[in-house]
Amino acid sequence: MKRIVLLFSIAIIIDSCSSGKAALKKGDYYDAVLESVHRLRSSPDNKKAKAVLTQGYPLAIEYIDENIQNGISADDPMKWRNAVKGYEQINFINGQIKTSLGAMKIISKPATRFKELAEAKVKAAEESYQAGITLMMKNTRDDAKQAYFNFKEANTYEPGYRESIEMMTQAEFNATLRVAYEEINASRINYGSLQPVLNSLQRQFLSFKPIDQKDTVPPQQYLRIVFNGYREDVRANISTRTEDVKRDIKTGEKKGADGKTQDVMETVAAKITYYHKAKGAVSNSIITITDAGTNAILQNQNIDGNAFWQQDWATYSGDKRALNTTQINLTNTKEAYPNDQYLFNQSINNLQTNLTSQLRSFYSRY
Known about the structure:
Blueprint: H1 2-25, H2 29-42, H3 47-73, H4 79-98, H5 101-106, H6 114-136, H7 141-157, H8 164-175, E1 177-185, H9 195-201, E2 206-210, E3 221-232, E4 237-255, E5 261-291, E6 297-318, H10 325-331, H11 340-363
Parallel strand pairs: 1-2, 1-3
Antiparallel strand pairs: 3-5, 4-5, 5-6
């Protein structure tokens, strides 16, 4: 067992070293450095990891610094956010090396960019903030949604930066689709409520409120769910079919003319009758989604919730030995009777599931 564990550990080390060298060859200097540092943490004298770190570390720092400066020189709209990411990578490498004794022997004074990072964060906050303002001026839901994340990003770089928190709130408000809904029972069935369906749809940028709930902001859509009713089969339907079965079975042994033992076989037969009993039920609703501004119908669809109960059993006449295991099990099963409450509950649950699926599909575009 110890040998297996040792071989497994060696395999991991070889694989890690190989992946570090592969990353280095592809120019993924950052990943190559982290892989080698990780390997040296558990295997301080690993020659391949030492070689990868020695070669890859200066290349990684140079590559990250160059990318940052190139972005700034080219006036990339993401230049300061990319600079933050780059400086954080350099600082992360520093932290990783300092927690690896083997790596520290190779890179005794890893580079840091703490001062540069602090300065870049201030500029990145302004960059994100201004990007959010530009998006807000486009005055669309999708742009307001993107603006929200820009203001959130600005606040992450510099907590409380300018009016980033207030602008986040405004952007979220502008990006939120407000839906006023009503649930109508057009039947005599007390089915409970479809409220769980509506609760499951609530998420950021999407708000559902009852149509009779007072709101200072008018809705952009109306959602109506009409429960039309529930019906089930008057009685269970039973179908039957009959099958004749035969089987050759061993009943004993005898010696043949040649003195060898032979099986004594007998053909046994039976008649088996299969019974299949089933009862179905269905609940139905209609969802209608209307644009509040134009009264245009955006969706109008019937949604069903189906339920089904069934049972199989069998009887036989003749020799039981002719039956196989499945047939015997069926003959040991007694006729059962459907539970109407089970059918009702299953139907309503399936209706809720189908409504949820349909509405999530529709509102996924928002």
